[in-house]
Design a protein that fits this description.
The protein is α/β, with parallel strands linked by helices and about 450 residues long. The chain folds into 2 domains: about 180 residues, Rossmann fold; about 170 residues, Rossmann fold (3-Layer(aba) Sandwich). It is globular and about 65 Å long. About 55% of the residues are buried.
């Protein structure tokens, strides 16, 4: 995508963000949002690569596209749209499908857990939306166990539901189960975490890399062009695609803004992504890394397990070892809240700015309103639950075409900051103001937009 085109897309995102509002968080025990908790089983993805949502075309293999696309799939690049993704129209996905019983639509949903306010919001919002449409929804909890999730899918096949929703416990475990359901004539919609290549209609999920890319740019804008940024990072768990793509996106965004501020911009967003990817890999391998040219250094990172308590513990260690830092990048709002406590205790609150990449919780927005947090990104459990049911309504009752969707259908990314927090704030819910559902783009539409 060319740079001017990316600017126009960012402008569209900013305008869209001004149309909605925000917010409430979880308790101190709350864990990370959907895909992060989904992929906390980092051992299943510890190689640093995961199967592509849809394989890259032979054009990429032939070296005719930017290097960043040739690197895909990578955990740390999840969320970058590959304009050379192969069509899926000819893949049997058990679609089209008519409800088994006239006037009734039966949905079977297997969810990872209910261990945090994020997952609770997914369940509650899905049930409310299904009730609104008059659908029958059976919502089962896998308790982080792939075998239990497999049994759920078998149960739904035996029941003959009209469609199955799967939030994968990990990327590989449910693939055979999904394909088995499709072979039985039942379409499958995934949410939250993208499974390895399979016959699901698509996966509805937040755009982790681009949320990082946008929030990273915003964080960097808070520093003068000649001011060195000495940063630390608090991550959920390295080895999770959610963690790695969010932080890789943030590093890429910071590099992009810094190089622009210094008058030596990258030729394209792809170049910024590639530079960010290389720097993130250095940080991941060595525990630190930086760019003298951009005036940006990451001097350390800590693991916070997506919780307030984890963020507090990680930040305490980082404060001790990095007395000269002036920026702390947190993967999510919960860890940022813990980090703020550590900075306050260490008398470093005035010295160190904190930015969050996700989730847009009410607690995160409260911290933005008070001036204690620079920003956060979009990732609402309410949207995840509601929009899955909206998608099902769209394909069964509104005639929407789901025959050639990518395996990864990404929600619009965005930044919440002091500039728009008031417009996005809503005291009645746990996240930013819920947006209107938009049916995902097909592969041909994505190709036309991005080439």
């Amino acid at each position: 995508m060319k740079k001017k085109k990316w600017y126009s897309l960012l402008a569209v995102v900013v305008i869209a963000l001004l149309l909605f509002t925000a917010c409430t968080p979880a308790e101190t025990t709350a864990t990370e949002s959907a895909s992060a908790s989904t992929e906390a089983q980092a051992s299943t993805e510890a190689s640093g690569e995961e199967s592509a949502p849809a394989s890259a075309s032979t054009e990429a293999a032939a070296g005719e596209v930017h290097e960043i696309y040739q690197l895909m799939p990578k955990l740390s690049l999840a969320g970058i749209v590959n304009p050379y993704v192969e069509d899926r129209a000819d893949l049997d996905k058990a679609w089209p499908k008519e409800p088994a019983a006239e006037g009734t639509l039966k949905i079977g949903w297997t969810e990872i857990n209910q261990s945090s306010d994020w997952f609770i919001a997914v369940k509650n919002s899905a049930e409310e939306k299904a009730k609104e449409y008059g659908y029958e929804l059976e919502f089962l909890i896998a308790e982080d166990d792939p075998q239990t999730q497999s049994q759920h899918i078998d149960t739904f096949i035996t029941q003959g539901v009209d469609i199955i929703v799967v939030d994968p416990v990990n990327s590989s475990a449910p693939v055979a189960d999904i394909n088995r359901a499709v072979e039985a004539g039942i379409p499958v919609l995934c949410v939250g975490a993208v499974p390895e290549n399979c016959a699901a209609l698509t996966t509805l999920c937040s755009n982790t890399f681009m949320n990082g890319y946008l929030t990273g740019q915003y964080m960097a804008e808070q520093f003068a062009a000649d001011e060195e940024i000495s940063a630390t990072m608090i991550v959920g768990v390295m080895g999770s695609s959610c963690t790695e793509s969010r932080l890789c996106g943030a590093v890429s965004g910071i590099l992009k803004q810094r190089m622009e501020a210094k008058g030596t911009p990258y030729a394209s967003d792809e170049d910024a992504w590639l530079a960010g990817y290389n720097l993130f890999e250095e940080i991941k391998s060595n525990g630190k890394g930086g760019s003298d040219e951009a005036g940006f250094q990451v001097t350390g990172y800590g693991t916070g397990d997506w919780t307030i308590e984890g963020g507090l513990a990680a930040a305490e260690d980082l404060c001790t070892a990095n007395a000269g830092m002036n920026l702390m990048i947190s993967e999510n709002d919960f860890m940022a809240a813990g980090a703020l406590k550590a900075l306050t205790s260490a008398n470093m609150k005035d010295q160190v700015k904190i930015g969050s990449v996700a989730d847009g919780t009410r607690e995160g927005l409260d911290l933005i309103k008070s001036g204690d947090l620079l920003c956060t990104g979009l990732n609402s459990g309410i949207e995840q639950g509601e929009w899955a049911i909206d998608f099902i309504h769209a394909i069964f009752e509104e005639g929407k075409d789901c025959s050639d969707l990518p395996l990864e259908s990404l929600f619009t990314p965005g930044v919440i900051s002091k500039e728009n927090v008031d417009e996005m704030y809503d005291e009645s819910i746990g996240f930013y103001k819920t947006q209107e559902f938009q049916f995902p783009q097909s592969i041909p539409e994505l190709k036309a937009e991005n080439q």
